[in-house]
Amino acid sequence: MRIRATVAAVTGALALSALVVPAAQAADTPASGKDGVREAVQTARQAAGESARSTYAAEDTGTPYALDVTFSNVKVNNGKPIVVGTTNKVTAPVTYTVTHSEDVDLRAEDTWVDVELYRGEYGNPTNFLIGDDWPVCTAVSATVDTCKGTIDIYPAEELTNADATTWKAAGYVIDWNDQDPYGEEVDFSKVGYAEQDALTTTKLQRFSKLTVNASPEPVKKGKTITVTGKLSRANWDRGTYNGYANQSVKLQFRKNGSSTYTTLKTIKTNTYGELRTTVTAATDGYFRYRFEGTSTTPAVSATGDFVDVQ
Q: What is the tens place of the pLDDT at every residue in 112-144?
């Protein structure tokens, strides 16, 4: 289980510094756990001159040399928005290519590489999202690796409703060159460092739910059918699902024996996300509501409710 950090703990330092210790290094990790890794990266970053406002002040122990590293082909969650509910952990895959000089070995135990998400300003993120484990990188050639990692999201601990927006990705590589990242006497002139921003973007969305109920069942042909329902979405501030107000939702019908839904009308949810409308009974079939989604909330369809028309 990883230790989650508050945004305040990384004020002035990019989310890239919020790392997770791989299993191979766990035995050597100090009592501070992931915070120890975070401090090590922030200190390296400050020594490289990239974050003068870092929470952790680096001593004058040299300046890291620049690694010849470039990130490309970065894809988060296969190019799709990341949809998150209120409680369950969500894991989104991250893939990318790292092109580097021949002297950079991404699979070395003393080399750290990762791509992470942040929102806000580069170097001073409003929030950040990381993976539970280090990525796995595979050599394609002496100078090219393809890497696979994850972004692991714990909504109850990490998210507020303001996080339903566009996030940016950035990557870094640090070569510690056999030095102890947690040591008090790191010679940063022997540490290789590279980072790259604006690799790609991805959207984070609040999971949505939609219900429907058509009644009475059965109903005589020509009589009125009342169709009710509710559109709700994850509220990360409260850890609950709340109605999504004033949203356009389609009432659709699928005739018994058909596989295609046809839109009958479009109505809007009320203040509580509730839906209510009426139609005239004509033939057996399924009624459902369909929401096309917004930038913060994904599209969703209710499971069709069958009505027997007699």
A: 999 999 999 987 889 989 888 899 999 999 999
Residue 309's alpha-carbon distances to 75, 92, 257, in angstroms, are 49, 45, 14
Give the tokens for residue 268: 């809007």
* 220 CB neighbour count, 10 Å cutoff: 9
- For 9, 146, 195, 196, 270, the CA distances from 139, given in Å and listed in that order, are 35, 7, 20, 20, 55
Buried b (16+ CB within 10 A) or exposed e, 290-307: bbeebebbbebebebbeb
Q: Is pTM beyond 0.70 here?
A: yes
- pLDDT at residue 38 in the model: 55
Residue 304 is encoded by which pair of tokens? 């069709």
Q: Which amino acid is at 178?
A: D
User: pLDDT (tens digit, 9 = 90+) per residue, 281-292?
Assistant: 999 999 999 999
Q: Does the pLDDT at position 275 exceed 70?
A: yes
In the numeric block, which tokens belong to residue 245?
Answer: 């107000």
The values of phi and psi at residue 88, to 5°, are -75, 140
In order of 68, 110, 132, 143, 213, the CA distances from 103 in angstroms are 9, 13, 28, 9, 64
Q: What DSSP line would sit under 110-174, residue for residue? A: TEEEEEEEEEEETTEEEEEE--SS--EEEESSSSEEEEEEEEEE-HHHH--GGGSSEEEEEEEEE
Phi, psi dihedrals of residue 303, rounded to the nearest 5°: -70, 130
Task: Map out the domains of the chain with their CATH numbers.
Answer: 7-205 (no CATH), 208-307 (2.60.40.730)
What is the rounded average pLDDT for all residues in the chain? 85
**What's the confidence (pLDDT) of residue 43?**
72
Q: Contact at 8 Å (CB) between 68 and 100?
A: yes
Asked whether 115 and 47 are in contact (CB, 8 A), the reply is no
